[in-house]
């Protein structure tokens, strides 16, 4: 049994009622994350996407489907993963991206500090640029190795939609997931 102390912040009124950026006006609810909050692997994406159709029927979007394919292909299961986001609300129209990301990243750091995952998988240029705090970072230049960001082991890879659109990237995506698994076995 996992003995880490965990404070999950979705119930935290600060984030549920956050109005520091314009995303609160977009009409989407706060999405803190999904999966097992005690998972050893935290996956960071840029923002929550669609999870249901206009009638409210849940569906598995292409991002989640590709993410799961890579993670499961490397030997991870759903209990090993927690997916979270730089932005905590789904953008529905144009917004001040740098401002929103600089505000929301603070919530992500609080989330990481409360859980202290074993390793982070950061997916896509936007998520990597925000998390690594470097607007020039590109996944193609940093993938395939373990980085230390804010005290956390971090592996970067392509965004699942990029992999879906360019299937040639899947072999690299899978290699990066395998690197995550190898790091877990070192712990």
Rounded to the nearest angstrom, the radius of gyration is 16 Å
Beta-strand residue fraction = 5-15%
Query: Unreliable stretches, pLDDT < 50, 5 or more residues?
Result: 1-14
Domains (count):
1
Q: What is the string of SSEs from the N terminus onward?
A: HEEHEHEHHEEHH
The assigned structural class equals: alpha/beta
Question: Main β-sheet: number of strands, strand sense, barrel status?
Answer: 6 strands, mixed
* Shape annotation: globular
Question: Termini distance?
Answer: 16 Å
Mean pLDDT across every amino acid position: 81
Overall helicity: 25-40%
Number of strands: 6
At the first level of CATH, the class is Alpha Beta
Query: Which strand order does the major sheet show?
Result: 1-3-2-4-6-5
What is the CATH homologous superfamily assignment?
Answer: Uracil-DNA glycosylase-like domain
CATH architecture classification: 3-Layer(aba) Sandwich
What count of helical segments does DSSP give?
7
CATH topology: Uracil-DNA Glycosylase, subunit E
List keywords for this structure.
187 residues; alpha/beta; Uracil-DNA Glycosylase, subunit E; six-stranded mixed beta sheet; 7 helices; 6 strands; 15% strand; globular; disordered N terminus
Short précis:
With 187 residues, the protein is α/β, with parallel strands linked by helices.
